Amino acid sequence: MIKKFFYCSLVLMLFCLSAIAQDKVISLKGDWQFQMDRNDEGISQKWFNKNLSDKIHLPGSMAEFLKGDEITLKTKWTGSIYDSSFYFRPSLKKYREPGNIHIPFWLTPARHYVGAAWYQKEVTIPENWKGKRIVLHLERAHIETRVWVNDKEVGMQNSLVAPHDYDLTAYLAPGKQRITIRIDNRINKINVGPDSHSVTDHTQGNWNGIIGAIALQTFEPVFLDDVQVYPDLKNRKAIVKISLANNSLKNFKGNISISAKSFNSNNSDETKEVVAKVSVTNGTKNDITLELPFGNGMLTWDEFHPALYNLKVKLDSKAIQTEKTVSFGMREFKIQGNHFMINGVPVVLRGTVHNCEFPLTGYPATTVAEWEVTFKKIKSYGLNHVRFHSWCPPEAAFIAADKVGLYLQPEGPSWPNHGPKIGLGQPVDKFLYEETERMAKDYGNYASFTMLSAGNEPAGNQVKYLNEFVDFWKAKDTRRVYTGMSVGGSWPVVPNAEYLVRGGVRGLKWDKTLESVSDFSAEIQKFNVPFVAHEIGQYCVFPNFDEIQKYTGVYRAKNFEMFRQDLIDHHMGDQAKDFLNASGKLQVLCYKNEIEKILRTPDYGGFQMLGLQDFPGQGTALVGMLDAFFQEKGYVTADEFSRFCNSTVPLAKIEKFVYNTNETFKADILLFHAADMPLKNTVVSWTIKDESGKLLTSGNFAAKTYENGNGIAVGNLSFSLNQIKEAGKYNLEVKVEGTHFANDWDFWVYPEVKTEVTPSIYYTTVLDEKAKAVLAKGGKVFLNVAGKVVKGKEVAMNFLPVFWNTSWFKMRPPHVTGMLIQDKSPAFKNFPTNYYSDLQWWDIQNRAQVMNLEDFPADFRPLIQPIDTWFMNRRLALVFEAQVGKGKIIVSSANLGPEVQNKLASKQLFYSLQNYMISNDFNPKNKVAFEVIQDLFVSPSKEVFNTYTKDSPDELKPNSNQNKVK
Questions:
Q1: Which partner for 146 in 171, 182, 217, 405 could form a disulfide, CB atoms 3.0-4.6 Å apart?
Q2: How far is CA 223 from the centre of its chain?
Q3: What does residue 302 show for φ and ψ, rounded to 5 degrees?
Q4: pLDDT, tens digit (0-9, with 9 covering 90-100), for 398-431
Q5: Distance from CA of residue 546 to its chain's centroid?
Q6: How far is CA 368 from CA 14, 21, 26, 351, 450, in A?
Q7: What is the pTM of this model?
């Protein structure tokens, strides 16, 4: 049996923290009778009347207890697959053999089962429960539940967002009773979409079970059915809407009282009690509204000061006394023009997308402690916002976010595409309304619940449907703001949305040059509501194979295991950690520049990264600085990341990052500030230092007050570079004095160098007979084969790394995740570099050809090694050195040579390589036959990628995201 996680607090969490006060509770945690219903015969054969044949422990899932099927090539997964090469590639044949199945598309569960399963438990109802209302509470059941008490069916529920609560009052009597639950995790009845993160194997997995609190709860027959709190900051009061229900046989008359007290702040506040008389006729409900005034000590909630109150609601009569406690925050999250406002102060969303990654359990956490760890980690990276992609987390997440201070955007549990569509009368249309209403009722009081989307990237008659959806919610509940769905840039705009989560206005346009001057002003001007960038980043990093050992729960990282072995098979197993770190440094550089571009754009509403953490599915999308466990990978810390992603960030407009010594370095300094207070009488300072830390120059700008805003002008600086005599890397750092906020940028300076060919080197662009003769005589050859590569011609390299991953996007370029550079080699003595692609490599690397070294010696390592997509693991080179015959050669598929004069870095690298070649240090380790090198420009690669799949993601389908109905 797989180790069970986090049992100790699962059951009590809801009752201690969700604000329901019960008279008595019977926990149903523990062993249950169990049986799989593979043939859907349980209902017709009345399994609720028999003892089930197996056992399982709840809360938990079937897979945790090895219930279900072994993984095979015929396992029927829940999720789209756009790359079937795994099933056909000869090199992957061994991973398709029984006993060695390695699925590359997502993490592999211990067992897999989609269908009906039955759970059964006997419980003794005490005598003193007579006359009480009894509710069976099932937190986070997946998906459809049907309940029987003894031989009587109670009903069916299928919520993916809220607890399944069954009123068993009419079915239970004192004594021993049998409760039977049938759970079906198929999605064919209400299809939310197989890729929805609420159900898909891409993320949490399509599990079967119940993973939160499970209990029988008792209530008085007259009870508080619902309590909703609506803060009114302007008038220092809260509007409290209460729904009373009377299930007794008598009319009820009594008093209701409300009061609130803060509980998590250094400052305390308490309201006076408000009392009113109430009555409820038997068998009916009564809704009442009360106003709760606050005094001058009222505390407000935001990301900086997440002050919370407990509202106590008491119902009292001679016969009945009951109460309910609700947690809430006094806050108003509104929209003013194209800005989000928290309590009247502009706020810019700096978010990540949570995709329901839970690699130990395979299902969402239901304890506050677990969510607090995750949310504190997210906040340590300078973020203040989380979007839940096509799913809604359990209540514990809202409680934790309230405490930590994060703005949440849960979504309807649907990606209505790749199967279902909205606005066509399919079951998903009604289901999304029902689900979001359940979300508002169960979680609507939590201060962190500030935004709501109906789901992700729909198909169908989407504009009409989503306009009506937004209008419905704007009229119904003003405590948060509403958008249609979170979408990419080609989806139609929903005009009635209060804000937009949308692609199209994101990314780095680094095809022609590198700079940090441009912003997105022109693109967002056409939108008059807050614009939040949809899923920015998606910059890939090489797998961290050390992560494999973390999978001690219900999942195994068979995808990582396959990628690791394939890397070993391609003779690069020893380079895995170097590939991770080198690609990771480039990934962080890209996120830094994209985030800064957004922060310097006036009126930009915010962004949602995809993501801070890795996405385990859709082919394995390693796009995060953190792994799927929300833990660091080793190449960037929270302190480093939060220098350019925070509530206050110094920014610099820099036209380029590579200079000659006869130029002047210039920068316009800006500030992003989104805090609860202005920066008053603040000095911004700057320094320029060399790589050793030696100060070259410094300055500061006059003290002034900075209000909230993006791209606030601070001042400009310039620094003449003529004092610099040697090639080097330099650093501009800008600080906000009196705070911890600082940011920095590297730039490179090269003296003027001559690039004519040294006489002792034969420079050529063709591996001709003269080159062969020079090598045969012990000479030196520099071979520039830019544009002439055949073996590796199919591998596209840009400076920016792989987007999302090459499997999901059917090997759409680029295919390379940065470069590993042998920076300690004397070849780079005159070209200062680290071991990874930094900005000075752009004019060398971007769109350069690579060479596939598949026929080279196993231990051959190039000077500059592009890092291939881990789905192919081709051994690549941009520049390599070798002994050939009696001679020595350097081969470059980057355009390096005397004719390259307008690219400073390319020119400098050629100069450095030539100096190396004429030095005594030029002594290549490996011997390579002339014919092996020559074959790079003659024969194609032996293995060429084929997806074997006709279908593709929406982004690869022309006009697929419009209102077309198939």
A1: 182
A2: 41
A3: -155, -175
A4: 999 999 999 999 999 999 998 899 999 999 999 9
A5: 21
A6: 10, 18, 22, 20, 19
A7: 0.95
